[in-house]
Specification:
By secondary structure, the chain is an alpha+beta fold. It contains ten helices and 15 strands. The strands form three sheets. Strands 1, 2, 3, 4, 5, 6, 7, 8, 9, 10 and 13 form an eleven-stranded mixed beta sheet that branches. β14 and β15 form a beta hairpin. The longest helix has about 50 residues.
């Protein structure tokens, strides 16, 4: 993990070439305060990071502060050979030493714009370095509580900045600006499922969006439920209608007697129409009313136009009466006598069969 630490720059001097040189306190032991987001713990407002002497002043840590590039503000990335030309405005020296609780490093600023910035008041330093961060809480030998420990500290670059983290002693030396107190997040009140909840403005927006999605989903489900209810009701209604229609069909079925009567009545209409027109009658697909109207139209022509069914029936009856009897017509005879003749013929056949049986039995007795 890459860290930065700020220290102030004091005791500078210019060389004959115009460079600015100084001895800088660039690191210190003890506890430094970081925002949680700086150390990968955004859920924490502040993180107390402990740097033990054993880590800060280890041989490898001290050696890593030598011959590091000096930058004007921290770059957004670690400095190396690939981007040194882009970021470097100077260099640290190789005579690294412990100075109390600090690490002192000689430095040279070679870029004129950076030198001008320092002389205009930009006089704090911030050491950029990598380390391992062990989030094991504990207490320092001095009794200070901490949340994490830095281990394997390795310097990367030394930045000239406007404010530092390592304390006022660190001015092109090593300055450490106190971390500002956490800003109070303005809270808003939101009603969630009948419960009043206080939350940040961002949280209100997020929760509000989720609640709206839930409401929309519920509305969709309610609409589907209503549609299902409506369809169920419609099906039940149709079932009732079907039951009624079935009953009507059952009730409307014709008995054999009714069928016989209907056949006789229709045959009579056909026979009467034939008697009126003197021609064969085509009855297929026609009702009795159609047959009567055709016969009346054939006889009366335009005079029949505009007649309703009742008038047609009257005209048909009058025309039939005017042509006389037609008992010789078997169809007419059938329409008058009905199906009785069929029954009479069957009875005659039965009588004849019975008589033959009687005669046969009589012959047997004689023999």
């Amino acid at each position: 993990m890459l860290f930065t630490d700020k220290i102030a720059l004091d005791g500078t001097r210019r060389t004959g070439d115009g460079y600015l040189v100084a001895d800088a306190k660039v690191a210190r032991t003890g506890i430094q305060i970081y925002h949680g987001r700086e150390v990968g713990k955004p859920e924490m407002d502040q993180v107390r990071v402990f740097r033990p002497e054993a880590e800060v002043f280890s041989d490898k840590a001290l050696a890593s502060f030598a011959h590091r590039p000096v930058t004007n503000d921290h770059p957004a990335e670690a400095v190396g050979a690939r981007n040194w030309r882009q970021h470097s405005v100077g260099m640290t020296g190789g005579d690294i030493a412990r100075d109390g609780e600090f690490v002192r490093v000689p430095m040279t600023v070679m870029d004129q714009a950076a030198i001008d910035a320092v002389e205009a008041g930009k006089r704090e330093l911030s050491m950029g370095y990598a380390c391992d961060l062990d989030f094991t809480a504990g207490t320092t030998p001095a009794g200070e509580a901490y949340d994490a420990i830095q281990k394997n500290i390795r310097g990367n670059h030394l930045a000239i900045v406007a404010a530092g983290r390592a304390g006022p002693q660190c001015r092109i030396g090593d300055s450490w600006a106190a971390i500002p107190p956490p800003m109070e997040t303005p809270m808003k009140t939101l009603m969630v499922d009948g419960i009043t909840v206080e939350m940040s403005d961002t949280a209100v927006q997020v929760v509000g969006k989720v609640l709206q999605q839930l409401n929309d989903a519920k509305a969709t489900v309610d609409a589907q439920d209503k549609k299902i209810t409506d369809l169920t009701t419609a099906v039940s209604t149709k079932d009732g209608e079907i039951a009624v229609l079935k009953k009507q069909v059952e009730d409307g079925k014709m008995t054999p007697q009714q069928i016989d009567a209907a056949v006789v009545a229709r045959s009579a209409v056909i026979a009467d129409a034939k008697a009126i027109t003197g021609a064969e009658v085509t009855a297929d697909g026609k009702t009795d009313s159609d047959i009567r109207r055709a016969a009346v139209d054939a006889k009366l022509g335009d005079a029949a136009k505009g007649m309703d069914d009742a008038a047609i029936a009257g005209a048909f009856k009058a025309l039939r009466a005017s042509v006389g009897d037609a008992d010789t017509d078997p169809v007419r005879r059938l329409s008058i006598d009905g199906l009785k003749q069929v029954g009479d013929a069957r009875q005659q056949a039965n009588d004849a069969f019975s008589k033959s049986v009687t005669d046969l039995n009589a012959w047997r007795k004689e023999g």
